[in-house]
Design goal:
By secondary structure, the chain is an all-alpha fold. The chain has one domain (about 45-225). It contains seven helices and no strands. Helix 2 (about 45-70) packs parallel to helix 5 and helix 3 (about 75-120) packs antiparallel against helix 4 (about 125-135). The longest helix is centred in the middle third of the chain and has 45 residues, at about 75-120. The radius of gyration is 29 Å and the shape is elongated. The protein starts with 5 loop residues before the first helix and ends in a 5-residue tail after the last helix.
Length: about 230
């Protein structure tokens, strides 16, 4: 140190300060990235996730329950498949129309409220329209398409499970088993995408499906045993 001039000491101190600042910056960057991922707003996925998951689950449970109800009084596989196909087409159409009307109503309400808010704050109709176009508003057409498509996909599971099995008892067992497995998968996918507990989501959707199939089978069986010809 005896051979260093005051200028040399100043330079060394400056280098140390720069290096320390660079190290602090690297540490901040390492901790900043996980925070940004943790702060991701998963509610942005809510619109399409709700429509898709609800459609798939509804399609699976509705058609599986319909097949179980028909299977309670009819052993013919053709009767079950015909009823299941009609139910899948009717259900997909109903889901699409219902989702379209619901989301379009939500869209109109949000647009009307935005117009009121922006007109009060700016008083410029042209700017208000431009601001509305930039907003992330719900799309009724996308929601309707997602619901119809997901319902059809869900309905295919029980239809395919029962289509190629001739034995009546085995057909019903396979129908329940395949539908249960698909329900657990739907619940797991929805939980992962929405960042919610997986076990609770799977259990809820599984028991809900079991209840729907059991009620459909039991009530139809009871109705047939009361003497009503089907």
């Amino acid at each position: 140190m005896a051979g260093l001039s005051p200028c040399g000491l100043v330079s060394l101190n400056h280098v140390e300060v720069v290096q320390n600042h660079a190290n602090e910056t690297d540490v901040e960057k390492q901790f900043q990235q996980p925070d940004e991922e943790d702060n991701f707003d998963y509610s942005e996925r809510g619109q399409w996730l709700r429509a898709a998951l609800l459609g798939a689950t509804d399609g699976l449970v509705s058609v599986a329950s319909l097949l179980m109800g028909v299977g309670a009084v009819k052993t013919d596989v053709k009767a079950m498949l015909l009823a299941g196909f009609a139910g899948s087409v009717a259900g997909a159409s109903s889901m699409a129309i219902g989702e379209f009307v619901s989301v379009y109503t939500q869209y109109e309400v949000e647009v009307a409220q935005m117009k009121r808010d922006k007109s009060i704050g700016e008083g410029n109709e042209k700017d208000t329209e431009m601001g509305i176009e930039k907003e992330n508003l719900p799309n009724p057409f996308k929601a309707a398409f997602a619901s119809a498509l997901s319902f059809s996909v869900g309905a295919l599971v029980p239809l395919l499970a029962a289509a190629f099995i001739k034995d009546y008892n085995i057909r019903l067992l396979v129908l329940v088993a395949v539908s249960s497995l698909a329900l657990v998968m739907f619940g797991g996918v929805g939980a992962v995408l929405g960042k919610v507990p997986i076990v609770g989501s799977c259990v809820r959707i599984l028991f809900g499906g079991w209840m729907a199939m059991a009620i459909s089978y039991g009530l139809t069986k009871l109705l047939a045993s009361s003497g009503l010809e089907l």
